[in-house]
Amino acid sequence: MTETLKQDQVIRILIVDDNPSDRVLIIRELQQQFPRLEAQEIRDQESFDRAMAANAFNLVITDYQIRWNNGLEVLRMVKARYPYCPVIMFTNTGSEEIAVEAMKTGLDDYVLKEPSRRVRLSAAVQVALERSARERQAAKLEIRLQSLLNQLRVGVFRANAQGQLLECNPSFLELLGYDSLSQAQAENSLDLQARYAQLSQLPPPQRDDWEVRLRRSDGSFVWTLISTTLNRFDSETVLDGLIEDISSRKQAELEVQRLNLSLEQRVQERTAQLAAANQALEEFAYSVSHDLREPLRAIQGFSSLLLEETSQQLDNRSLGHLQRILESSRYADRLIQDLLTYSQLSRVDVPVQPLNLTALVMEVAEQLQPQIQQRQAVVNLLEPLGEVLANRTILMQVLTNLLTNALKFVPLDVVPQITIKAEILAGSVKLWVEDNGIGINSEAQSRIFNVFERLHGSESYPGTGIGLAIVRKGVERMGGQVGVESQLGEGSRFWIQLPSVEET
Ligand code: ADP
To answer: Which fold has domain 350-503?
Structure first.
């Protein structure tokens, strides 16, 4: 930014000269260029001291030879107190050595009083004032920048291509525990040369961040985020960087990682424990059910024997009791058998194969002939039923249960009408088993697939309440679904949906 002086700007000048006509000369010369000039004439030390204390001037013009001192001393005194105040020497008596000496001390210009030279005075004042304004502005910016850098909670640093630290702010020193820049330079814990080399390989903007754990001067460690970039000034390229303390974030991250790890481990342990407990429980249930059948068979066997051998001797009451024992033990045996089938469904592997549903349904119907005949039921099979991918044993069991129910839950004075049909869909087959039985109210329809869920007492419709649970578990294990559509008194439409053989 170039500073230019405005015509109407007030310019206050100290004129240090013993010669009154020279002072007039100066004022006249400058007034042409600066109409709002305010000149203060200094004739002795006392007036000089007063002016210095008052600080009401922008520039000093001094002769070299003065009665009470000399121009060089005046220059020194002004610059010592006001470094940005321009001083111009306007003299006839100075030598070249004096001029050189004065320039070294900070003199802004040197103008000779002789007529051919003094015309330069206005221009010299103009240039000096502009330069001083620029310097003042730059100094102000520098002070602002420095105070910002000092206040910043982030470390700021600059290094050269050799990785040597050139400058840094107080936060940088504090973060790494250094007392001074020279200590930081000596310990060189950042390996900036390697960083510089890495960045110079990158395309513009040559910038990168990295997280690193650094050793502080006292031996402790701190996690930092270092952001660096290469900047060019004239012909030199430097590495500018910011360094931030991220210890608390890192700590939290590590804690989350540790917790995740231990959580995963705990979940694995629990899952393994649960699987082991489940298996033990299933094995226990299986062996108990299995072992229970032995004494049950003995009860059944001996009570049948007793019935055969002693039916002549026993009175009707005792005979009734014996019949009850036999029936109860048969029921318990059926119950255990169903439970075994159910629990085995989750234990065994379920290999599947392509199965023709028509053949399978006919085989099941064949096995159920005695019941079908007993109820004089009509079974309609609407072909085609298609092919499914299923486990033969399980699917036979599922169809048997559905057909048995379709025969069973029909009032005795009604001829059971069973229709079996299929919807052949893309990738699956939905098989329907429809009856004209008592129906199921909508509230109970989802419940009946649970174990032991029965809607009727065994005196009206005997059963164990496990049949439909076997249907659902079996179908699900083969990758399918089950459901029912029904209304009370309107018959029921049970369906199972199974994957079909993919057509290629
Ligand atoms: P179970 O037949 O041994 O009672 P299920 O699990 O096969 O056990 O059936 C559960 C209950 O669902 C039956 O008790 C009955 O109330 C009802 N149910 C099953 N199938 C039918 C059907 N076709 N019509 C009417 N109700 C049925």
So the answer is: Heat Shock Protein 90 (3.30.565)
